[in-house]
């Protein structure tokens, strides 16, 4: 589909990266925020069709849109982690106020559609609703959703607005209000109680505000609660509720809506609407959205004759720029944790100096999103960090997931201290460094009165005893988990990242404390089985140990997968395993895992690979293929990283990211982007002087624009000579004319700008890249 998207204006050099994005890829079994084509990068207004969002179970489970479904229940506006609401549906004929079901769409206002009549591209979506003969089109600015509905002739045309039902990840609505506030305007509020807030931040709620401006005055209107309707009622308040507006339309008549959104107030939703939509036509906004995507996507230009890899690349990059959207208004207002309104400082032109963002946690994000954002989008990464620092200044703690100002930590951990340190290590430092360091240090060491929503609920064991014991924890909603071992290795890694921050700032005592914590993974390494193994509080390792068993001590994984989780110190892991066992296990992992497409095979399930040797569909494993660079066999990193790109990643709705595995908020797409360029850092930029290790670049040429505010260079060019599907092995490499003998390079060299050249061949060069392994915690000065 996406390859033919060339309708919008092209730039002079004919470079139109948005045309290579296919939003349908991986949209079978996708997450709530995954499929939102009518939006701009990191926007608040994320408009999308819903096929299975109404009355969803909430939580995190895949929902919203599924490419296998052939009926639509409406078009939603808010799509963020734990946030959803405000659905509009244009219809004709008999008034129905519930959408019906996928199995029986005729029992409600849901409409069937044909795939040939559906079109999605970055910034725009359209579909023909067969039941009603209506063409629906969507686009957006940052905070305003634009709708264009082309109706048939009908005396019973209408638009239904659902505000009172859970949508996607939102969980239950606690109160929703809406009223006709002018002849052709509506406004309202939606308050929800997301599943993760119930145990992370039980006193908080997510609040959404909206203002709707229509270009045609309704002939009549009404409200509803479930299937009960109330004609001529101009407002509604409660749950399970909504409103409808009625029109008589001529054949081909167009009704347009502009919907201003906000997380702070109706007045600010009006301000956002006025600022971003006044005087704007639907078509102009559509073109502008396309150009915004082209600017962001165009910061990395790939050149290749392989159109499949180009589609994979720009679709993955699109996903990495889609999630974690705006929470602040045009005037810099944003929702604080205490329920009040925060205000971002303004510049000399009266504009906010930065934006505030909603976000899922950063669990695993340092291996994909963090590296990508730091390289090509440091302006966004800086603002993303600043958002959390503002939250921490207010509350005293970092979050690892926030929804409209409330803690929404989904993984009971917190990797944001590492993310702050890595950002600093990359030279992105336009925030209060001392404040950033202090809160990052507290994130790794502070456990007294720590709120549950900040994660690391079990940090006291790690700090005081050196490991987290195997024990069940039951939280307020009844969920039970036992993640002591995975948390131990995670916290050791994040401690290392902040230790490097401390070292850079000359904080010797902090550095030594954190470095000791960074070695705590050894306390749960079992020398008998040679696995990371859960231990009880009395020091005994758990009995009946099966390294392939998921969930027993490990979050979303098993001991086999998590034994590799020492990214700060692969050299240290090699030492305790022995180089022969290290390589034997790692080689067997990939030889066997290829048989299951490096994940859960063809099972459509986010957790389908948890009991495998390797699971590319989930974050804990994403560095494994690059460990061969540390163990003297870099050609196997080249082989397996490229093979994963070729086989795990596809270009179909089902086979996009494995088969129905968890693309999350661009995590897996960002991994493809980095690895397809031949660059990856096992340490996630945690080291004070970060490096990139090399894989097997897929493209003939890559040009990355570097931001001069943060980096010395104008651009980084990666050229690959003699490249082909068969020629996956690096024969030699150079940077700016100087030979590279190792399978890694200092990151700063690359961001200073220049040209990195790889010569490729069909057979491994077992003499290249083996001279000196990449830096590791136990081998670095």
TrEMBL record:
Q: So which domain of life are we looking at?
A: Bacteria
Pfam families (alphabetical): Glyco_hydro_92, Glyco_hydro_92N
Q: Which GO terms describe its molecular function?
A: carbohydrate binding; peptide-N4-(N-acetyl-beta-glucosaminyl)asparagine amidase activity
What biological-process GO terms show up in the record?
carbohydrate metabolic process; glycoprotein catabolic process
Keyword set, alphabetical order: Calcium
GO CC annotation? cytosol
Q: Where in this chain does the record put each Glycosyl hydrolase family 92 N-terminal domain?
A: 20-262
Look up keyword Kinase and say if it applies. Answer: no
Q: Which cofactor does it need?
A: Ca(2+)
Q: Which residues form the Glycosyl hydrolase family domain?
A: 268-761
The record's listing under SUPFAM superfamilies reads: Six-hairpin glycosidases
**Family matches, as PANTHER family:** PEPTIDE N-GLYCANASE PNGASE -RELATED, SECRETED PROTEIN
Listed under subunit, the entry gives: Monomer.
- What is the name attached to this protein's record? Alpha-mannosidase
Which organism's genome codes for this protein?
Flavobacterium gilvum
């Amino acid at each position: 589909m996406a390859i033919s998207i060339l309708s919008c204006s092209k730039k002079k050099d004919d470079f139109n990266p948005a045309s290579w994005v296919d939003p349908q890829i991986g949209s079978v079994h996708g997450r709530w925020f995954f499929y939102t084509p009518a939006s701009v990068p990191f926007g608040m207004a994320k408009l999308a069709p819903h096929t299975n969002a109404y009355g969803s179970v909430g939580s995190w489970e895949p929902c919203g849109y599924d490419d296998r479904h052939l009926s639509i229940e409406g078009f939603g506006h808010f799509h963020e982690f734990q946030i959803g609401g405000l659905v509009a549906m244009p219809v004709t004929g008999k008034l129905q106020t519930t959408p019906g079901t996928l199995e029986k769409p005729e029992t409600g206002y849901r409409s069937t559609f044909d795939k040939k009549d559906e079109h999605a591209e970055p910034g725009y979506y359209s579909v023909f609703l067969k039941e009603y003969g209506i063409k629906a089109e969507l686009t957006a600015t940052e905070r305003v959703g634009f709708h264009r509905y082309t109706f048939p002739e009908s005396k019973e045309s209408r638009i239904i607005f659902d505000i009172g039902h859970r949508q996607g990840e939102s969980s239950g609505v606690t109160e929703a209000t809406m009223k006709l506030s002018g002849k052709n305007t509506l406004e309202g509020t939606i308050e929800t109680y997301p599943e993760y807030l119930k145990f992370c931040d039980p006193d908080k709620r997510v609040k959404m505000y909206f203002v709707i401006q229509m270009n045609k005055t309704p002939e009549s209107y009404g409200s509803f609660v479930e299937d009960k309707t109330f004609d001529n009622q101009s407002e509604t308040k409660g749950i399970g509720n909504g409103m409808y507006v009625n029109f008589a339309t001529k054949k081909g008549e167009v009704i347009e809506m502009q919907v201003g959104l906000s997380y702070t107030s109706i007045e600010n939703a009006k301000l956002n609407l006025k600022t971003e939509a006044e005087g704007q036509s639907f078509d102009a906004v559509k073109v502008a959205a396309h150009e915004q995507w082209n600017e962001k996507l165009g910061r990395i230009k790939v050149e290749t004759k392989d159109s499949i890899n180009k589609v994979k690349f720009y679709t993955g990059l699109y996903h990495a720029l889609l999630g974690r959207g705006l929470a602040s208004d045009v005037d810099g207002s944003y929702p604080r944790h205490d329920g009040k309104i925060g205000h971002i400082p303004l510049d000399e032109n009266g504009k906010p100096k930065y934006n505030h963002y909603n976000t899922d946690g950063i669990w695993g994000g340092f291996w994909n999103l963090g590296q990508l954002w730091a390289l090509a989008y440091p302006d966004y990464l800086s603002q993303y960090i600043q958002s959390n620092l503002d939250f921490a200044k207010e509350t005293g703690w970092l979050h690892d997931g926030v929804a409209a100002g409330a803690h929404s930590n989904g993984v009971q951990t917190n990797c944001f201290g590492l993310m702050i340190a890595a950002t600093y290590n990359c030279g992105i430092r336009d925030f209060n460094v001392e404040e950033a360091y202090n809160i990052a240090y507290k994130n790794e060491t502070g456990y007294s009165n720590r709120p549950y929503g900040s994660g690391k609920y079990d940090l006291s064991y790690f700090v005081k005893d050196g490991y987290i014991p195997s024990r069940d924890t039951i939280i307020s909603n009844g969920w039970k988990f036992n993640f002591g071992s995975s948390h131990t290795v995670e916290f050791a890694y994040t401690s290392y990242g902040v230790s490097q921050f401390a070292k850079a700032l000359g904080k010797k005592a902090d550095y030594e404390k954190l470095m000791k914590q960074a070695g705590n993974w050894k306390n749960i390494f079992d020398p008998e089985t040679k696995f990371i193994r859960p231990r009880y509080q009395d020091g005994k390792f758990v009995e009946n140990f099966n390294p392939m068993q998921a969930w027993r001590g490990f979050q979303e994984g098993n001991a086999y997968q998590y034994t590799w989780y020492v990214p700060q110190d692969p050299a240290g892991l090699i030492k305790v395993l022995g180089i022969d066992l290290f390589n034997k296990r790692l080689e067997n992992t990939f030889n066997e895992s290829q048989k299951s497409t490096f994940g859960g095979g063809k099972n459509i399930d986010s957790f389908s690979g948890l009991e495998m040797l390797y699971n590319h569909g989930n974050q804990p494993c994403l560095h494994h293929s690059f460990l061969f660079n540390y163990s003297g066999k870099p050609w196997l990193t080249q082989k397996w990283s490229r093979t994963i790109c070729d086989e795990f990643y596809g270009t179909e709705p089902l086979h996009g990211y494995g088969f129905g595995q968890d693309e999350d908020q661009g995590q897996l797409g960002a991994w493809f982007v980095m690895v397809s360029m031949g660059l990856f850092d096992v340490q996630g930029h945690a080291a004070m002087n970060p490096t990139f290790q090399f894989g097997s670049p897929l493209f003939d040429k890559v040009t990355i624009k570097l931001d001069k505010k943060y980096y010395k260079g104008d651009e980084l060019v990666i050229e690959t000579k003699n490249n082909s599907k068969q020629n996956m092995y690096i024969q030699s490499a150079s940077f700016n004319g100087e030979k590279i003998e190792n399978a890694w390079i200092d990151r700063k060299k690359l961001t200073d700008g220049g040209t990195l050249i790889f010569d490729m061949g069909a057979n491994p060069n077992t003499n290249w890249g083996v001279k000196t392994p990449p830096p590791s915690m136990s081998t670095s000065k």
